[in-house]
Design a protein that fits this description.
The complex is a heterotrimer of chains A (252), B (509) and C (327).
Chain A lengths: L1 H12 L3 H23 L11 H5 L3 H22 L1 H8 L3 H34 L13 H28 L2 H21 L3 H10 L1 H5 L15 H25 L3
Helix pairs in contact in A: 1-6, 2-4, 2-6, 4-5, 4-6, 4-7, 4-8, 6-7, 7-8, 7-11, 8-9
Chain B lengths: L18 H13 L2 H24 L17 E32 L2 E5 L5 E7 L8 E7 L4 E5 L3 E4 L11 E8 L2 E7 L6 E7 L6 E9 L3 E3 L2 E3 L2 E15 L5 E5 L16 E5 L2 E6 L2 E4 L11 H4 L3 H22 L1 H8 L3 H37 L9 H29 L2 H19 L6 H10 L32 H25 L3
Antiparallel strand pairs in B: 1-2, 1-7, 1-10, 1-13, 1-14, 1-17, 3-4, 3-10, 4-5, 5-6, 7-8, 8-9, 11-12, 13-16, 15-16
Chain C lengths: L21 E10 L2 E11 L4 E5 L6 H8 L7 E6 L2 E2 L10 E4 L11 H11 L4 H10 L15 H13 L5 E5 L7 H16 L3 E6 L2 H4 L5 E6 L2 E7 H9 L2 E5 L3 H10 L3 E4 L4 E5 L3 H10 L6 E4 L4 H9 L10 H5 L1
Parallel strand pairs in C: 3-8, 3-9, 6-7, 7-8
Antiparallel strand pairs in C: 1-2, 1-4, 4-5, 9-10, 11-13, 11-14, 12-13
Helix pairs in contact in C: 2-3, 3-4
The chains are: A mainly alpha (252), B alpha+beta (509), C alpha/beta (327).
Amino acid sequence: MRLALHAEWTKMRTVASPLWLLLGTVAATVALSAVATSVVNCTARGCGGDTTKLSLMGVYLGQAPVAILAVLVISGEYSSGMIRTTLTAMPRRATAFAAKAITLTGVVAVGGTVAVLGAVLAGRLILPDLGDQALSLADGPTLRAVFGTVLYLILIGLLSLGIATAVRDSATSIGIVLGLLYIFPIISGTISDPDWQRLLQQIAPMSAGLAIQATTDLHSLPLSPWAGLGVTAGWATAALLAGGLLLRVRDT
Amino acid sequence: MTPTVTPYRPSERVGRDGFLQVLHAEWTKFRTVRGWTVGMMAAALMVVLFALLVGVSSNQKGSPPVPIGPGGEPVTDSFYFVHQPLAGDGSITVSVSALKSSIPKAPGDLRPGTVPWAKAGLIIKDGTRQGSPYAAIMATGSHGVRMQDNYVNDTAGPTGPASAESPRRLRLDRSGDTITGYASTDGTKWTKVGTTQVSGLGSTAQVGLFVASPPAVGGGGTAGSVSTATFGDLRTQGGWAGGNWTGSQVGAKSPTFAGYPENAPGSFTGSDARFTVTGAGDIAPAVSDSLPTGGHLRNILTGTFAALIAVIVVGALFITAEYRNKMIHLTLAASPRRSRVLVAKAIVLWAVTFVAGSVGAILATPLGLGLARGNGVYIFPVTSSTELRVELGTAALLATASVLALSVGAIFRHSAGAVTTAIVAIVLPYILIAIPFMPASVSKGVATVTPGAAFAVQQTLVPYDQVASNYTPYYGYYPLAPWAGFAVLAGYAVASLAVAAVLLNRRDA
Amino acid sequence: MYKNQHETTPNRKLTPMSAAEIVVAGLRKRYGATRALDGMSFTVRPGLVTGFLGPNGAGKSTTMRVILGLDAVDAGTALIEGKPYHSLRHPLNHVGSLLDAAALHPSRSARDHLLWLAHSQGLAARRVNQVIEQVGLTSAARRKAGGYSLGMRQRLGIAAALLGDPPIIMLDEPFNGMDPDGIIWMRGFLRSLAAQGRAVLVSSHLMSEVQDTADHLVVVGRGKAIADAGVADLIAAASGNRVALRTTAGTHAMRVLGHAGAAVAATGRDTITVSGLPADRIVTLLNQSAVPFSEVSAHRATLEDVYLELTRDAVEFRAATQSEVSR
């Protein structure tokens, strides 16, 4: 396993695209958060909403490069045929797959942390001085939101890895991942029945997972922050299992 | 030493040199990869399936009916009405010396505020049934004197607010179906504000004073308001039955009426010459914001987003697969004029996607509308030509998005980047628009300059000058006209196709 | 094996200018600091199989891509029948090429692959069936090309090259990955194409692959042609006029032949190489002087020798020699 990890890490660091995609994640997250915090109407009493959630809004965009990175980790090997080399060198496919997942987790954790902290910093600088309502990592719910958002990005990466392993084509995988993420909130916005709306928000990987960013009005959420992240984790686990199983049983 | 040989010459072939051949070749390429045809069929299917989902999941059974105006459009017809019957012709005159509005800051905490379209004046209406024909002349919060009839018609009269120092005198005459409104700022000089034909008033109409107060718009939402007007110098002429004035709340229960703020019900006091009337609601065409339970055609076509992702993937793969397989070498060796190849690909892709999108949208619309209506959902009415525009516009949107993905794919020569760029460029703007607290200026800007502007082709709602509302993309009002919004996306597609052509010609294959 | 579907126009007059089908003149191309092509010039003539030989990285594939208008050059021209490739109306009627047998969409069948290509030239679907039969792929034509073996893909690539019935056929490393049967088939096939009067250009990095097939050789190294000649000429030039002699009386023989004006060199314990005298004269002289000998034979250089000699300095990537390693 140690050897497999070393091999995967070497693969990851010796091509330029992962670094660029991580930088893309940071840039996209911070940029969208900065835009969101600068356009909101704030008064001395507050900004009419959850400022923590608002500052972390950049992950709506920042998760896209994470998804591409995760998809390319495996589908890049399929399109070049390198997957055969990989599986010849590491015949235990479960080990090879786990090594990929772990390496991806580490890389996204680092990039995601930088992105999320950058977004919070941008929010602090841009939002007007809110006194004791100012964003602070010392605040329990805010810390949970920040930490949880990094976990969310990792889960999105793992979900994408699982789907890409099952699908084996990068374009189709990215389409499926972005579809899963973005289409649920669009449908739940147009469905008028509140029960259906709530259900969709509870099962959608993005809407549910981003409940982890809520710091106010927790009782009005369709599900609690950690339960929401749990839903996303469920999606990621299911995708990884499906991908891992197909990798084991299929010819390459 | 080389022997003399006869070089091989194929027999001369009469063949047209042409773009049509490149087009034919690209069509053959497209239809012979099963994944791509499946992708297109999936896109059409998504549009239909989501329409079914939206239709099935909506439920408005048992809610009060939406009032419909004489023109067939949904209306708000909820106001406080102080009235008497008028048989045949006659006229009524009144002066409005105050119109004060209040907006709640918190439940039970009413504060004075400005409601630009608060209305107080005279109305002649065919009874108190919601949606019945009417004509009215009124003083407003900040739009001066107006004469309005049948919900959608609005004529401006003298400007300036009504006050004790400068009351607005109003007069309404009925002569058959002809209603004429007059206004005066000094009581001596009268100006005719407007004359209108109102059919369906009946021989005996209800005529009198009214106050309406539409919700105050702010911060991306609305807050119910209430207004109180002071009337004086009430005089009548003609076929009046006489007797007491009756105070009624028209349209107390209505999907287009949010009700009165807490502890501020509609009322009237006074008699004969002087009245104080308090009312809420509006007499106006319904808009998305005032009829929140109403559905639009674009809701039925939510599947456009899923279909977009499918056609973007296929569009990008149509060119990037050639690069990945190096088949581009063969393609360009067979057709050395490279721009032609790219244009042929774009045409084939656009046409195929347009057909798939049209089939999807044309099937989805009646199915989704039928299911939603069956579940009691009121759908904002559209003409059949508008419906066709939405359907074909959606197909054109999908087709153009796939060409954008193709162009980006030709520029990147890599499917992952191309797919992500195209999806983020078209779908993300919509998600940003859908965030309720986005200021209107930002969401309008996003819907003007990004490729997401093309969703305007699904717009079926019309904004009204005489209704203050959130006319933002979130509520279904796009800053650009349907085809202008589509032109923005088309502009992006054409520009990126041009860049792709330049690069394709300049780069080694 | 190849049945000509179109009769050659018999009364066509040939001018010397039209004799060369491909004329490559002074091609230069750089990728950054690397000179991929450095004055590449040669011609390809009809009725001959021209071998395009050189070590890996010598510029063979780049030259072929330039001929097909796929890559741009910094200087020089590559003309097909006197015209640049991009000006051809139906290019596949002039040049059929196979650059990379793997260059196809894996989920498209062989027939559909050829069909789109035919449509791009305005050719009828009938022609697709003809070339499929010609390369012997009929039974597999409706299967997805992704499942083909390398040999089958090569045949499919050849079918694509033949589609427009072109007078010029250009194949990049067609023997790569072929089994012995396939190689024999390919050689016969190339010969038959040339016999019909077509110009055939076949690249390879191994002399042995084209040795028995090519009539003419263009040997390249470091981005330019270092030899452009007929196979017989090349061998003759390398062989000289030498005769190998096997004798136990080496000293005597050398004296006799030296007197007769030949250049003589001992190459082994009982072998001598003689140049400057034909073999029959040598036999007469030795018999007159009663010198015993067991064998007289004309010395022939192999093409392999010629190739190695020519490309010795031009090899870009060569394993370090023993002496370099030990240093």
